[in-house]
Amino acid sequence: MMQHxxxxxxxxxxxxxxxxxxxYQIYIRSxxxxxxxxIGDLAGIRGxxxxxxELGVDFIWITPFYPSPMADWGYDVADYCNIDPSFGxxxxxxxxxxxxxQHNIRILIDLVPNHSSSEHPWFQxxxxxxxxxxxDYYIWADPSxxxxxxxxxxxxxxxxxxxxxxxxxxxxxxxxxxxxxxxNWRNPAVRNEFDRILRFWLERGVSGFRIDVATGLVxxxxxxxxxxxxxxxxxxxxxxxxLSFEHLHDEFQPESHDVFRSWRAICDEYDAFLLGxxxxxxxQRLADLLPGDGMHGGFWFEPMHVGWDVAELRNALVAxxxxxxxxxxxxxxxxxxxxxxxxxxxGDLGRERTLALNVLFSCLPGVLVLYQGEELGLTDGTVxxxxxxxxxxxxxxxxxxxxxWTGGPTNGFTTGQAWLRSEPRSDGQTAQAQVGDPNSWHSRxxxxxxxxxxxxxxxxxxxxxxxxxxxxxxxxxxxxxxxAANISAEHRCVDLPAGATVAYATPGVSGERQLxxxxxxxxxxxxxx
Length: 529
Ligand code: NOJ
Ligand code: CA
Description:
By secondary structure, the protein is of the alpha/beta class. The protein is built from 13 helices and 18 strands. The protein has helices at residues 42-47, 49-55, 90-102, 121-126, 188-203, 238-242, 256-269, 283-289, 310-324, 340-343, 348-362, 431-434, 441-454; strands spanning 22-26, 59-62, 106-111, 140-141, 162-165, 170-173, 208-211, 273-276, 297-299, 328-330, 367-371, 463-465, 473-478, 481-486, 492-495, 501-505, 514-517, 522-526. The strands form 4 sheets. An 8-stranded parallel barrel has the order 1-2-3-7-8-9-10-11, surrounded by 4 helices. A 5-stranded antiparallel sheet has the order 12-13-14-18-16, with helices on one face. It binds 1-deoxynojirimycin and calcium ion.
């Protein structure tokens, strides 16, 4: 196992432990199964801590493991303070925290506050009628005069955001599936419940939370309809439906900041990291979500959608970094997005481009997060149409297929049959084949994280971007460190400053003072002494 800085210390000069840290997202269902039921579990994560420590990650973010009917694969929580039996027990969780600590890996968990499951006891009580003590935990409204939904809000997953409750004749609101009723964040009782939930997990040793749907939570107090900007057709794709409205009243309400501020105060007591699933591709909206006294940071989604184009990439990197710096989480993918090597051109072309983008991320202010399997250069897995399990039409199954540990029919993920059936990965894509092979994607990523750790502390150093778009190179200096990536499809030269040495280079980079970067090649140099 490689040596890491002790978990209690932060890099010299760092304000928070996560400055300069690297995270790793674990989609628990698909990471490692230990009991043959085909579902990844907490014990499976525990069994792979050596692997994660050798890769060099500082923290893991685990997707929801709470008791759930799994209508949205765990993002429908029926009990915020327990573990679904398919993932293990609270004892397994405690064991994981303890052993992760021994590996100098912190654990962040996924908090799902915008909505619960319709199976949550709060909602089960709320649907008994308007007199329920829990009625006001959710958002209820009478039908509009024509008997239809109370307003024109629609769900992210398509269709109206309202479902009629036949018993009371009222509608309840849901930004996602009808099985995911939205909580009423204007109700102080809901706030108290979540303060308690945060403390429950902090006391169990978690180092922070990824806040699901951090753009949601509080809704317009008068439930006003959104302006419609084009015709809405419920048979259109969910994205097209969403874009038919200007979302003035159903998300991005400033009152949500009060919630984040109070959670920030709780997290600060525990030195815990509060980061948001801040889904927007508008940097102004992201800045509005991260005023500085609420969530410490948020994911920036533009790089998950950007094309391999120098102008698009610069747009995704330069202004956002200048604007939000340490508050950004940089990632090329997640369990909701097509894997970046598939988006950037299937096969090695996409893998090279994804590595180059990670090199560009690696020395910027903020936190770099890898999605499980990214270190193996995984493209999207292949799921036959009759095996699809995602409840929405966007095909999120391809990025959720099981982690390939070894060769064979289930790639060492399970001894049984995987919950999500997919074509086995080739031997070359497995961890078994790649770990220790100096020419593997795994070694390239391990090398990148090791090089990043060995660089001088950059926390206080500003970023200076170079203007070399005409060369199709993106490059910046940060203190004594420089980074360059060749976005073009041809070789390009990069001159290193006097005294600089190469700290990291992708395959095929050659030269000493004047470096030759192949297409999609990237380099980090250091001239600290
Ligand atoms: C974002 C999560 O990442 C996604 O998987 C989920 O479907 C929605 N939020 C709803 O919770
Ligand atoms: Ca299992």
